[in-house]
User: What shape does this take?
Amino acid sequence: MVILLEVTQEPNQSPIEERIIEITGNLSVGQRVSWAILHEASSIKAGNVHPQAFFSEMRFEHFVLASQAIGKAFDDRLSTRSIGQIVHSSVQAMVQAVEVNTSLGTILLLAPIALCSINSNGWNPKDFQESIASVLEDSTPEDCRLIYQAIRIANPGGLGQVASQDVQSTPPESILEAMRSDEIEHGAEARAAGGVELPSPVRAAMRASAKVMTTTSYWL
Assistant: This one.
């Protein structure tokens, strides 16, 4: 998020905050997206591709090439203010560049954040949450159709089929509808497998922890 949302110079900023402003201050949103993808892929993580680890069909170089293609697609489509067009064009660019799915999840994550960055006046957790909600609420059936199509193009491993909201089926009217239906279905599957709902105090503590993580992750 620090990559995409405007970071303003303020008194008493730490050296890392000043460095972030220096690195990202003059970049376009698409360039920031490229930087974020490359930075994440450069981190050493067990079981994932990074500069010292690769799979037979995916190497770190794939992420380098894909990050540039995806960033350009973000810049090309950001003016449409359509989350569906941004996701679809970015996935197409990725597949055309490297012929493998390196970053579908990252594209889905960053597309609404990029749209929020258009009117960003700096980092504010409450404003950010409201902006994300507004982007999703304003999504259209065409956005949902394009996102479903993008997922099919990326063809992520282990996609399989589900009873409802399957990406091979007709998309719902909105992204939020798909997300809510998916959440309900996952909850039902968890309960059927023996899961139980967490007590209210635990859920409240988790929500509080999530807010802390949302705020602190800006600086990490």
